Amino acid sequence: MEHIEVPRGSITVHDEWVVHGSGGNTSDKWRKTYVIAYRSLATIKHERSIGFTHSHNDTVNWKTALDLYRP
């Protein structure tokens, strides 16, 4: 695994298998993001069946979701 820092104001374009994220927002300002994710209906159905989601409004069982991707 390689850690790559992206400068403020930059973008990333990557495959869904790339582990990615950011630290918490420690400022008093909003952090804005724009995400475009392309998934087949079969993928969406599978993700929902295991409790995985990309909505900030949903509770995610990360252990269950991530265990499915381990070899």
Description:
It is a single chain. The protein is mainly alpha-helical and 71 residues long. Helices cover 21% and strands 0% of the residues. The longest helix is centred in the middle third of the chain and has 9 residues, at 41-49. The chain is globular.
Strand content: under 5%
Order of helices and strands: HH
- Average pLDDT metric: 77
Rg on CA atoms, Å = 14 Å
Helix content: 10-25%
Shape: globular
For this entry, give a set of tags.
0% strand; single chain; mainly alpha; 2 helices; 71 residues
Q: What order do the helices and strands come in, and which of them pair?
A:
Layout: H1 41-49, H2 62-67
Short description:
The chain is mostly helical and 71 residues long. It has helices spanning 41-49, 62-67. The protein has a domain at 42-71.
